[in-house]
Amino acid sequence: MLALNLSPDVTGVLLALTLGDRSGLSHELKQTFATTGTSHLMAISGLHIGLAATLALLLVSAAWRRIPQLCGRYPALLAGTWAGLITAAGYATISGLGLPAQRALVMALVFAVVLLQRRLAQPFAVLALAAWVVTLMHPGAVLSAGFWLSFTAVAAIFALLPLVRGQPWWLQAIGVQLAISLVLYPVLLLFGMPLSWLAPMVNLVLVPLFGFVLVPLSLLGVLSLPWFAPAADLLGWLAPLLQGLLDGLYWLADQGQWEAYLPPVKLRWVLVLAVALILAPLAWHWRLLGLVLFGLGHLPITSTPDWGTYRVTVLDVGQGLSVVVQTQRHVLVYDTGATFPSGFNLADAVVRPFLREQGITQLSLLMLSHGDNDHAGSAAQLLAQMPAQRVLAGEPDRINITAEACQAGQRWIWDGVEFRVLHPTEPRPAVSNNASCVLSIRNTAGSTLLTGDIQASVERRLAPALADAAPWSLVIAPHHGSRSSSSPALVQATRPQQVVYAVGALNRYGFPKPEVLARWQAAGAQNWRTDQSGALSWLFAETVHGPTAYRQTQQRYWHD
Q1: Domains contained in the chain, CATH given
Q2: What is the pLDDT of residues 363-381, one digit of tens each?
Q3: Which residues lie closer than 8 Å to 293 by C-beta, 6 or more apart?
Q4: Reported pTM
């Protein structure tokens, strides 16, 4: 396809549509698909396989009816069913037979068997049988969002089609798309997945366009290209159309904050009840109550600290660090976690979803302790969606965004809470770990020390100043609890009440080291680890409240 002089975006989309290979999709393009609610179009999923099988069934059945000799020997509907089943099997095989493809293939197979046996069966009974077969094949599938999204969407289509039969095709399409969006809403909420407000409108156009035009023609062109040279003309014709669609999606994504508000967990159950009341065959006043609850559930209810108080949340970003500090009217993010060559990054996976759930759309300050990937790797991705009024960094030259240098002596007060940078000092000979910004946060209730990856030499220099402010309420253990940090000088100077180790589960470094844990514990500190507790949050009000551990408030059966 490179010989066709296609743009990188178009090449990536063609590979994703035809072979299920998403490696060619840029981070910006993936983010655009997520914002517009069209990510599902870039994976060979049940949608693609179902549409391809339906298209094959309709085309072969129509052609079969035009040949009397064939119709006399075998019914056109059954011939189309065989064509649809073969198409579904071939497409699923090409995609690598991932779980979504297997699920779609099982659904197609069950429906085909019912049709081929010439039995009359209720669509919901056939759908239930397909779900049963999928569960037998993969019992763990019932715990995945994809399982419930797939079967719920098909059930919504079955339920709505009798109601819109006889209406104009465009009205049927709008009704089906809106019904799917509304029915899937509870599933997305219960799995903690945000919903794009753009999704219903955009998918109304793109689902049929991709399913019945772009995917079949792309597949035909790519598979025929090695043996049939004119297939290049087909791909060349598709390229401008695809590029135009992508440009349109880019434009839509840039028009504003389209991502849905993801409400707190308790409110999600209110919204689930609201959708159930709207969809249930009840009297009109119950549906009206559902609409009222649905509106109330989307009010921007956020819990911000009172004046003079602050909240510290140490996020679980694996083997890395990211801390969110909230005062009444300001938000500071200290480090962002890592990014990886695949495009996966902790800003999009963890930091931004947390901020979005808190109702935060802008940062007062982004502070990057130093330039290592596990601390600053996702900074650009975070700022792309969450602008910051100011950026400070321990190593401005080592990060891929514009930032001022943090240095000892910088001080500010937000809403009655004092922030002070304790390190690095000028001149700046230190590099990497020892260049980390060390930040002190203090109010009348208690104090927090953010240390980055400083090592023993810097800890000894800071010890006198830290001892003057001791005891500290909360210390983020330097360098994730390595032997090169958490020196006796730091432990004795801070005498903290609680220490947090930001570490990844089963990390290859063995952090935090046992002797480090023992050293802090001997000083009277309570040890906390993000790999065991998930995100940890403290509220510094009249006293220090916390921590609140994510895995205690968001219990799952597989967590201890």
Answers
A1: 310-553 (3.60.15.10)
A2: 999 999 999 999 999 999 9
A3: 270, 271, 273, 274, 277
A4: 0.72
